[in-house]
Write a structure and sequence with these properties.
Order of helices and strands: HHHHHHHHHHHHHHHHHHH
Radius of gyration: 29 Å
Distance between the termini: 92 Å
Helix content: 55-70%
Largest sheet: none
Structural class: mainly alpha
Strand content: under 5%
Shape: elongated
Length: 289
Amino acid sequence: MVVGKLFDLGANEDFIKRILMAVGTACPVDEMVEIAETRNRLRLLQPWLEARVATGSTEPGTHNALGKIYITLNRDPKAFLTNNMFYEPKVLGPYCESLDPSLAFVAYKKGAGDCDDELIAISHTHGLYRDLARYLVERQDLELWAKVLNKEDTEDGKEDPQRRQLIDQIVEWALPESNSADEVSCTVKAFMAADLPGELIVLLERIILQGTDFSDNKNLQNLLILTAIRADTSKVASYIDQLDNFDAKDIALICVSESHMLYEEGFSIYVKFSKPEFTQDADEQTELQ
């Protein structure tokens, strides 16, 4: 191709740019980008690529090449990766990895599920656990949750430290920051499916006991107490004392059942909810007494 020969002959860059602008959209973008990239001259195509975008081009090759230029020049690359709708995340993601892993994360996130494996891998490699935690909460995908939460011990039998760091970010930051009932519900389901009762207790404590929008949610209060009955009975009495919006009769029966034998905790529920401030119905008060 003529432009390739001009590159090889060391022709004046302004002359090459004028030729490209004269040719305009008649030149195939993928072929031109390959010629420039193999000669490390991609930046020279910037005016030509921007002119193609200005004419309404949505070709992925055009936007991929322009993205590489902006990333290399540090020309607000995060805004480009976040807002541009036409580049290919599987192209720009790997390109960013060696330059700035956080930009690669943004590109893979733009893949809307098509780049989840790459996103998880780069998060583990570069410690982007907070970003990954927020992404998981927002995605609300139980299959994706299973990929990162399913327990895999290391060769020495200890818990995978990457998994622990991710769980800590979910519990301490990502979910407590959420105001979405759907996000909370899906995350709780994911922790239940992964059989993480201890971590689920800590997660629910952050949501319920630390003053979020979901502190008075009956289902979550029920789940917190029931999970403690199953996994950490030392916490049950404290929850009964602190929480006011759970199914008292049902949970009391579970407490005093033969499988749990938490008689003092069951008695505390009956005493607490027999009072008018907790149970307004007179018949229910009598029943609880």
